[in-house]
Structure formats: C-alpha cells, structure tokens
Write a structure and sequence with these properties.
The structure is a single chain. It contains 17 helices and 16 strands. By secondary structure, the chain is an alpha/beta fold. It has two domains: 262 residues, 3-Layer(aba) Sandwich (Rossmann fold); 151 residues, CBS-domain (Roll). Helix 13 links the parallel strand 11 and strand 12. The longest helix is centred in the middle third of the chain and has 18 residues. Magnesium ion binds next to helix 2.
Amino acid sequence: MALSVDHAYKVFGRRPKEAVKRLQAGASRDDVKQHGTAAVIDASFDVKVGEIFVVMGLSGSGKSTLIRLLNGLGDTTDGSISVFGDEIVGMSAAELREVRRERMAMVFQHFALLPHRSVLDNAAYGLEIKGVPLEERRERARGWLDRVGLKGWADSLPSELSGGMQQRVGLARAFAADTQILLMDEAFSALDPLIRREMQELLVELQQELGKTIVFITHDLNEAMFLGDRIAVMRDGKIVQLGTPNDILTDPANDYVAQFVQDVDRARVLTAGDVMEPPRAVVPASAGPRAALRTMRDMQTSACFVISSGRKLVGVVRDKDMLRLVREGSANINDALKPTPSIVTPEQYIAELFELSVESPLPVAVVDEQDRLIGVVPRVTLLASLANLPTMTTEIPIIEPTPDVPRAIITATLDATTDGNAAPDEGLTVTEGSAS
Ligand SMILES: Nc1ncnc2c1ncn2[C@@H]1O[C@H](COP(=O)(O)OP(=O)(O)OP(=O)(O)O)[C@@H](O)[C@H]1O
Ligand SMILES: [Mg+2]
C-alpha cells in the first residue's frame, strides 16, 4: 500500500476534538456546527502502489482538505494516515517536510510556478529542494520538459506560456521531483477542454510508464472516469461511494452519485469487455460450408465467425460464399475464409468501437491476448450501453446485417444437397443474382 487512511477526521474550528467525539457517537455535520466545520468525516481507504485514485465531489465536499491530510499540509483531527507504512499523524513539521520532499509531489490547479524563474528552474524546483546539484537537476528537468512537450521553452518565463503550457511545467516539476506518490488537486480544471484531454492522456501515459501512485482530485466525473482505477465520491465530508468507474456508473450508491453519473460520457468509461455478449454466429473451421450456412440461417445473419481449436478467431465467412461452396460440393470453408473486419480487445473503450461497428457488417469481435473470441459487440448493444439499458437479454439481439441470401434459398440448397457430395438439384434454378 502506498497510502492507508483509517477513520480520518478533519474539523476546522474552535473545538475540533469535541466535534469528532460527537460525530463518532452518531451526530451529523450540522449537529456539530457550533464546534467547527467537519470537512472530512470518518474517511477510510487504501491507495495501492501504481494506482490512480480519484477523489470526486461537489465544491465544499472536502476533497482538498482530504488530500492535504495525506501529505501533512493539514493536520488530522483524529484517525490514522500512513505513507508506505509510516504513520504521519503526529509527525513533526520537519519530518513532514521530509515526507513531502522524498515521497509526495503535489500539483495544484493554479500551477503555482515561481514567476521570476525560468521554466527550466521551475521544473527543477523539486530537485533543488532535495539538494540535487545545479547541473544535474537542470539536466533532469530538461528531460522532463521534453517529455511533456515543452522542448525549446526551458529559458522562457512562466508568464510567456499559455495556461496549458504552464500546467505542463507543473507536471514536469512533479515528475522531476521523482517521488513515488503524486497528489494532484484539480490540476487540469483551469484548462480548456481539448488541452485538458491532452493532459489527461499525457498523465495516463506517464503513469503507465513510471508506475507512479497518483491521488487525483476533480469535480468532473468524465475526468474521474477516464483517469481513475478507483474513485471515491465525497459528499459533505463523507466518502459516500468507493469503487471502480464501472461500479459507479452501473451501480451508483445513492441519488447524489446517480446525479453525477447522468452526465458522464459512457462511451469513454465502458469498455468492450463491459458490454460484450456471447458470440452466437460462430462455426468451427472444421465444420463444412453446410454447417456454416445452417448457422447463418438460424441466426439470420449474412456472415459468421470462424474459430479454430481453442476458440482462436481465424476469420469470417459470408452466406453467398457458403452457398457457392455447397453447390460446388466443396467441404472446406477455409476456401472462402475472409479476414475479420473489426477486432478489439476487451480493454478498448466503446468510443473506439463506433467507427468499426459502422464499417463492418458483423458485430465487433472481442478477442483476448491469445486471439480467442471471447465476445461480440453488436450495434444495438453499443447503442443500448450508451443509454444504460440492460444489454444482456435472454433473446437473441438483432445481429447486423440482415441476410443477403433469403432463408428459403439456403434451406432449399441444403435440402437439395448432401454432405460432402456434389449433387445439386437440377430443379434448383435460383441463382445469387436473382435472390431478392
Ligand atoms: N482552512 C479552513 N478553515 C475553515 N474551514 C475550511 C478550511 N478549509 C476548508 N474549510 C471548509 O471545509 C469544507 C471542505 O472544503 P474543501 O476545500 O476541502 O472542499 P473541496 O471539496 O476541495 O471544494 P472545491 O471543489 O471548491 O475545491 C468547506 O466547508 C470549507 O469551507
Ligand atoms: Mg478543493
């Protein structure tokens, strides 16, 4: 565990200890008002090493207060907070400075750059505090400026940079400080939406590369959902729900959370793995064209997936081609195998599936690392998932597209032929061109 918070309280005001005692006995935030403002009430959670832990909630819900308890900028009224196993409640100011310097860098909403220092020396600031010699810290900071897309700006002053660029300096400074934990309080909230998105993506990229532990505060649920491995939702000082983005989206603990969730861009939260359904239009490669035709007829599809032993997805076949093979008396569907038009992994966001889904006549195929077909996402499922309708039904969903070859023709062809035997019925006059 990088951080462990255990029954932590923070009350501002004249008699904080008294307020905590009453809160612990069941009093409400309003009940203890005369003793002080209860900003954090009974918070308990762990943050794992390498996790992005998001704290979300409306203004005044206690997010900033909570994050400041984690690095000792605010003193905890009651409860315990440990950083890599070291209890920080009760540490001296000097010890806390040491913890902040060595273990936790912080990024704020308003950049907090030093105006008279160059971009480079701002980025090197955390290293300076650590006592890293000038040349070395400048070299390391320069590397980080490059990394966040600020190559060539090292000698500028912060005032010469746009807001988004200044926040990049803030990020470079935090990463350069080389602490295992980053605390970010509304770090991207002052940025324009597009730049904000870029910064979120950059953060995720750096986090994946470096395995930092990040506590990220935001009041934007889309941001929370995009960044968070887990999200704690705060209301009036309390954590009212703690879960994965998917938990929070699909099973909000109460109306407060549900209201947040209403506005979320589900397409960037839900993944193919969250919404996929069992594949139905599937035949083994060893099956003949007749079996493939029968499957397509029963599923009313014009194509089906072909799998080899071990469920590996090897491609798709079309009804027209299977009809031809049956008429020719061929027993091998591999002769007409086509590449699967759209394949995704279960981790891909459904936002990425729309284009694939429109381009492909078949549902989008979901495969695991071993190329095994583990599910499909039909178009209706994609749409249903956006509206939060139940996606798993007991009925077979409408799988795109409708068959090219009418069922009657397939049935007639199957009846008129036998397995492995090219004996087309002479009376069978329907050709593909005349199918309607
Ligand atoms: N230094 C302080 N002294 C007294 N009360 C404070 C202090 N800091 C915060 N509070 C109170 O604690 C509560 C939580 O404030 P906090 O700043 O943690 O909220 P927040 O969730 O970060 O809000 P925002 O989204 O607006 O930043 C508020 O009622 C606030 O007025
Ligand atoms: Mg705040």
